[in-house]
Design goal:
The protein is α+β, with helices and mostly antiparallel strands. Helix content is about 20%, strand content about 60%. It has one domain: Beta Barrel (Lipocalin).
């Protein structure tokens, strides 16, 4: 009887420390429909001037990254980004040079995130909404 209790306790502890984040992440992996607003602007004396504003509809993917907390988003044909997922479903997007980049999942079938880049006299923002297929 003691032996069974030890085995059950060991398995519970192992599952607790190794399985939670991986399985949580896997809820979001799959095919997604993304709507992305891309905004390019430049700084002017009294604020900003919008140079370009596009809305892109794309059938993309969210896939597993290289570790248990990473997701990879292909949200347009030419845009792919990695993000780290916390246990609450919040995303921390980490593309090179990005600022103000974050997002969150709403349940298992909706995601919202944005990515912004700043340049000396200009900037670019991607505002993304995804719905799981």
């Amino acid at each position: 009887m003691n032996r069974i209790r030890i085995i059950a306790t060991t398995l519970t502890v192992l599952l607790f420390f190794t399985g939670c984040d991986k399985y949580h992440r896997n809820n979001y992996v799959g095919d997604w429909e993304f709507v992305t607003k891309k905004l390019v602007y430049k700084r002017v004396d009294n604020g900003i001037e919008i140079l370009k504003c596009d809305t892109i509809y794309y059938s993309g993917k969210i896939s597993s990254g290289s570790n248990d907390k990473e997701l990879v988003f292909q949200y347009t044909e030419g845009d792919k980004v990695s993000a780290y997922l916390d246990i609450e479903g919040f995303l921390y997007v980490t593309p090179c040079g990005a600022i103000g980049s974050n997002g969150y999942f709403e349940g298992n079938s909706k995601v919202y995130f944005d990515i912004g880049w700043e340049y000396p006299d200009a900037g670019e923002g991607h505002y993304i909404i995804g719905t799981k297929k």
